[in-house]
Amino acid sequence: MALTDTQIKQAKPSDKDQWLTDGQGLRLLIKPTGSKYWRLKAPVSSLRK
């Protein structure tokens, strides 16, 4: 499910870290202070040995 602008604006901080996700690797971290941080989980396709 995609995150909507309304969901992001209505998200309120709680006493612990809170995550909102779109299901495709994009996540929004909401800290207890009210700060919001975007995180993207992307796979690493190749690693050097």
UniProtKB/TrEMBL annotation:
<feature type="domain" description="Integrase DNA-binding">
    <location>
        <begin position="3"/>
        <end position="41"/>
    </location>
</feature>
<dbReference type="InterPro" id="IPR038488">
    <property type="entry name" value="Integrase_DNA-bd_sf"/>
</dbReference>
<dbReference type="Pfam" id="PF13356">
    <property type="entry name" value="Arm-DNA-bind_3"/>
</dbReference>
<dbReference type="GO" id="GO:0003677">
    <property type="term" value="F:DNA binding"/>
</dbReference>
<protein>
    <submittedName>
        <fullName>Arm DNA-binding domain-containing protein</fullName>
    </submittedName>
</protein>
<dbReference type="InterPro" id="IPR025166">
    <property type="entry name" value="Integrase_DNA_bind_dom"/>
</dbReference>
<keyword id="KW-0238">DNA-binding</keyword>
